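Hi all, long-time lurker, first post. I run a small reading group and we've been trying to get comfortable going from sequence to structure in the token notation. Rather than ask abstract questions, I figured I'd post a concrete chain and ask someone more experienced to write out its structure so we can walk through it together at our next meeting. Sequence below, copied exactly:
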Amino acid sequence: MAARHEVTKKYAREYAAASKLRKGELLDELIGVMGWSRANARRAIRTAAQRRGPARAQVRKPRGRGYSYDALKVLIAVWTLVGEPCGKYLVVIMEESLDQVTAHDKLAEVADRLTDQVRAELSAVRAELNPADLTRRINAIQTHLIDHARTKTLTQPDAS
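-- Answer (accepted) --
Happy to help. Here is the structure in token form:
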């Protein structure tokens, strides 16, 4: 993979200084060497030209967390209590569901985590958080719950 990046970087340097006719020839050479499509070769040249240093030295900026740990625990509790809807629907009903669940004292396990800051985080879901991101978080929770449930046996061994 590193060799591909280095070859692409070499072609990107030539490509930047080339005429239109030479650019087409360089793309054809890169396609022949790498076996890529023309669109992929163009995309690779563009990204290689933006890169500084070797490809393995590039460090991605880590993503920030969307919620605090307490807000995530409350979110899981609310999500399970309202019937585990997908993220697209949960974004729409989050504020009303949170009010109803707290009014009926259903958050016994996580009631100590429900502070004003956590409530503000969860109420801001509609304005700030992408439903797709919420769906990814929910899918991660579901996968964890399913894996955890599989580890527990639900049957007794045969007594015979």
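A couple of things your group might point at:
The radius of gyration is 26 Å.
The chain has eight helices and no strands.
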